[in-house]
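Repro:
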Amino acid sequence: MERLNNNEIVNRISQTVTNTSNISNELFKQFNVKRGLRNEDHTGVVVGLTKVGDVVGYDRDENGNTFPIPGKLMYRGMSLEDIVRGAQKEDRLGFEEVVYLILSGDLPNKKELAEFSDLLSKTMDLKPKIVMHILDLVGKDIMNYLSRCVLELYTFDDNPDSTSPENLIRQSLNLVATFPTIVAYAHNAIRHEQGKSLHIRHPQPNLSLAENFLYMIKGRNYTPLDVKVLDLALMVHADHGGGNNSTFTVRVTSSAGTDTYSAIAAGIGSLKGPLHGGANLKVVDMLKHIKRNIKDWTNVEEVDSYIHKIFNKEAYDKSGLFYGIGHAIYTISDPRTVLLKEMARDLAIEKGREDEYNFMNLLEERAVYNFMEFKGKDKGKQVCANVDFYSGFIYDMIGLPQEIFTPLFAMARIVGWSAHRIEELNFKQKRIIRPAYKNAAEIKEYTKIDDRK
């Protein structure tokens, strides 16, 4: 009997996948299965309770009917917009305050915030062995570097498996503080692998997390506004409720009782996906394409015409999707987008890129309008620009490369992940998260090996 080589074996099995892994959409309806833990209106199925964060896009009238409202994002019952406006009014950075709030449940006073910020800043340094390990790694994706380094931190932790509140907070603060350093060093290692000069700048104890990150990436080549905008981006990405894919992943793995580093590494793997944290890269790529193909950035008719081509699957990736527009919960507005858009305008003025900002503003307006006319009119669906629409543009104006965009998301979301993990582990009645799946396979008889074709 002639034996197949490795590639032929892989090809033979892979050819069966289309049929064996395909399940008809009709079966999901037949068995009333909430595919993706989503209801028919695409809202999430409620599977848990949390006090960490809340994502609000709808309200109910006195008859119990839901209706859309301007989006709200709550951290520990407090409006993100109020937190941001408070810091802006006092002309100070706010990410460290958000970290304290999300982990502790309360806002710090001035003394507590100063001490807490100092602790985070002084915790940013990595052990020399970890630094050398990062520099020895070979790869192109910083998220993979981050995941591997997080798992390695387990081996340097004297008490890695304890789930006492003190130990969980210690681990959480270490991860929040070291994520920017790992990302910065991984970026520099990849640049060096590509033949560029290696720059290793150690975090400075007197700088915020946002400014330290810019310093480690760019040296002193940044402005005070760059720091404020990056700080805001970290604030708005710090948490988004318990149901987003990466946070739910952390909660699922935590419910099994695994260690902090394994749970967070799982969350990183989820966030890396192009349908989650990697979505901003898709937006950036699409916007570059649109900028190249629209000659007059002020011509509404030309803009509308090209948007129609995208919706009709005639332009860009021909998926019919306009990335950065639409959200599962927010309908009238995404509060994170509102806040980032304001800072994007100020940053565009500083960088001399007002034409691009004005074009982005027009594109957002026309994409929402055309979606309603083209796709949402009959269904009564309302959409808005989501946080990914402006975030990539902001990062680009700050001078950050695209490979850092998703890791930046992780640098912020580690705060929410940590808080949700602690909450999951502190339920009085511990129960592993274990949803059910309905088996849709046909019953088959076992065939003896000599009778198989």
